[in-house]
Amino acid sequence: MERTLSIIKPDAVKKNIIGKIIDRFESNGLRIAAMKKILLDRNTAGEFYAIHKERPFYNDLVNFMTSGPVVVMVLEGDNAVKKNRELMGDTDPKKAQAGTIRADFAENIDANAVHGSDSLENAKNEIAFFFTQTEIR
Ligand code: CMP
Predict the structure, then answer these.
(1) Nearest C-alpha to atom 11 of ligand 1 is from which residue?
(2) Angle (nearest 5°) at CA 110 between 105 and 112
(3) SS3 of residue 6 by DSSP
(4) Ligand 1: distance of its center to the CA of 60 in Å?
(5) Is the distance from the beta carbon of residue 6 to the nearest atom of ligand 1 less than 6 Å?
(6) Which residues are catalytic?
(7) What is the pLDDT of residues 83-103, one digit of tens each?
(8) 0.90 cut: is pTM over it?
(9) Partners of 7 in the β-ladder
(10) Which residues on adjacent β-strands are paired with residue 116?
(11) Which of 7, 72, 110, 136 has a CA-to-CA distance to 30 between 20 and 30 Å?
(12) Atom 1 in ligand 1: residue holding the nearest Cα
């Protein structure tokens, strides 16, 4: 059993499709172990994406992730990290396989509907970034 962090990004929250995205997870063997809707401030978003600090898209990424509320979740299930990434599809919605969350709901590589941890180690760090142990059930 693994846990991974998922974020429903501001574009998807604005489109009122939180439920549609959560349905993809629940219908595919992932369980929501923790969840909250929050507005990220620039410091928090910047720290969360610190790994991308030197990338040319960093500023736009922080601007976008603070442009409206997000839903942060811990997903739990067998191979949760890989399964979540398969359900999300490629980072760039234009390259994402048909039937994936990003192919169906995302506009472009910035407004790409969801974030998911890319490894088990990053999942542990990202979960601890947003949730305390007692919030995960
Ligand atoms: P996410 O999985 O949240 O991780 C970092 C985000 O940066 C990524 O999704 C994209 O939304 C955004 N991004 C913008 N441009 C790029 C790029 N060229 N490569 C990777 N991520 C990018």
Answers:
(1) 110
(2) 20
(3) strand
(4) 10
(5) no
(6) 115
(7) 999 999 999 999 999 999 999
(8) yes
(9) 72, 115
(10) 6
(11) 110
(12) 115
